[in-house]
Design brief:
By secondary structure, the chain is mainly beta. It is 11% helix and 32% strand. It contains two helices and five strands. It has a five-stranded antiparallel sheet, with no helix packed on it. It is globular and about 35 Å long.
């Protein structure tokens, strides 16, 4: 399966009019895609537990599914293209302040 690591610009272009989704089913099964993401795309993040913390709908075009890592503020986001009914790509989202240090293992 092909995966696509989004650039910050590509990811930001999918972010508009966010509305949190609290109920319902995902628009498609995306877990095979997550399993195919290369390890280097996760950086220090470990998202193997597959805990989805938040889902946001961006208008009627995209859905962002945030998969928790072991670190607060760091999640792998799977971006679903709702019109095409496919995964658009993924992005490692870090919402921590700039220069935040990752704890040593």
């Amino acid at each position: 399966m092909n995966t696509r690591l989004l650039t910050k610009q590509e990811f930001d272009a999918t972010r508009f009019e966010p509305k949190r989704v609290d109920t319902g089913e995902p628009p498609m099964d995306f877990w095979a895609y997550v399993e195919a993401i290369p390890a280097e795309d996760f950086g220090v993040a470990d998202c193997r537990d597959g805990q989805v913390s938040h889902v946001y709908r961006m208008g009627d075009q995209y859905e962002h599914i945030l998969i928790n890592s072991q670190y607060q503020g760091l999640a792998m986001v799977v971006v679903i293209d709702l019109n095409e009914k496919r995964v658009y790509g993924h992005f490692l989202l870090d919402i921590n302040p700039v220069n935040t240090q990752v704890p040593e293992e």
